[in-house]
């Protein structure tokens, strides 16, 4: 009976420790995601003749992201990583002045820090960073800049393979973009 009692405590601890370390791969990871980008852009800008032009885009399109990062794996149960990505938000239809048939394209390069909590193979994370973006409006020109991004997500990890779902918000000057995506990553 004296050997059974320590075994009763040891077995659950071994199970919990194995679950805690599941998906704890640190190192370089590569991945991609696809999802839906929702854009809202409403502004008045001067055209070359110094007459204010109303610009109104409120549309959504399929978007994709290719990303790479490094998970430091310094603290058990916690993910700390840096991540860079190229994001193509797609093409959005709207109006510029009297033209209701204008198209706006937006893409950019991102850099962000991620912090997450591992709950076995399942985890949640948040991210904060910046996007260096470029936009182009048919027959009107374009704009670019560097602005903040932030997001939250959940992930499921099995060995070195990860599936994740994310919501990201990009605040670009007068353009707001919400990006909902599902993706996968592999840690090397």
What does this structure look like?
With about 190 residues, the chain is mainly beta. It is about 10% helix and about 75% strand. It has one helix and eight strands. Strands 1-2-3-4-5-6-7-8 form an eight-stranded antiparallel β-barrel. The longest helix is centred in the first third of the chain and has 18 residues, at about 5-20. Mean pLDDT is about 85; it is low at about 15-25.
Helix and strand topology:
Layout: H1 4-21, E1 27-46, E2 52-71, E3 78-96, E4 99-119, E5 122-137, E6 141-158, E7 161-172, E8 175-187
Antiparallel strand pairs: 1-2, 1-8, 2-3, 3-4, 4-5, 5-6, 6-7, 7-8
Keywords for this structure?
188 residues, mainly beta, 1 helix, 8 strands, eight-stranded antiparallel beta barrel, 74% strand, elongated
Q: Could you give a quick summary of the protein structure above?
A:
By secondary structure, the protein is mainly β. It is built from one helix and eight strands.
Shape: elongated
Summarize the helix and strand pattern as letters.
HEEEEEEEE
Determine Rg (CA atoms, Å): 22 Å
Q: Which percent bin holds the helix content? A: under 10%
């Amino acid at each position: 009976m004296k050997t059974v009692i320590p075994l009763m405590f040891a077995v659950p601890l071994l199970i919990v420790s194995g679950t805690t370390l599941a998906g704890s791969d640190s190192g370089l990871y590569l991945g991609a995601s696809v999802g839906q980008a929702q854009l809202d852009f409403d502004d008045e800008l001067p055209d070359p003749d110094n007459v204010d032009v109303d610009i109104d885009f409120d549309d959504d399109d399929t978007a994709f992201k290719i990303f790479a990062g490094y998970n430091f794996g310094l603290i058990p149960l916690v993910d700390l990583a840096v991540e860079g990505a190229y994001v193509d938000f797609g093409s959005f239809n709207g109006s510029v002045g009297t033209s209701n048939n204008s198209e706006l394209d937006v893409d950019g390069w991102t850099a962000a820090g991620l912090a997450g909590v591992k709950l076995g193979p399942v985890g949640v994370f948040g991210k904060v960073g910046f996007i260096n973006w470029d936009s182009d409006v048919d027959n009107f020109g374009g704009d670019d800049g560097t602005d903040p991004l932030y997001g939250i997500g959940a992930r499921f990890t099995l060995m070195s393979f990860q599936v994740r779902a994310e919501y990201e918000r990009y605040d670009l000057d007068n353009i707001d973009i919400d990006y909902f995506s599902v993706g996968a990553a592999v840690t090397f």
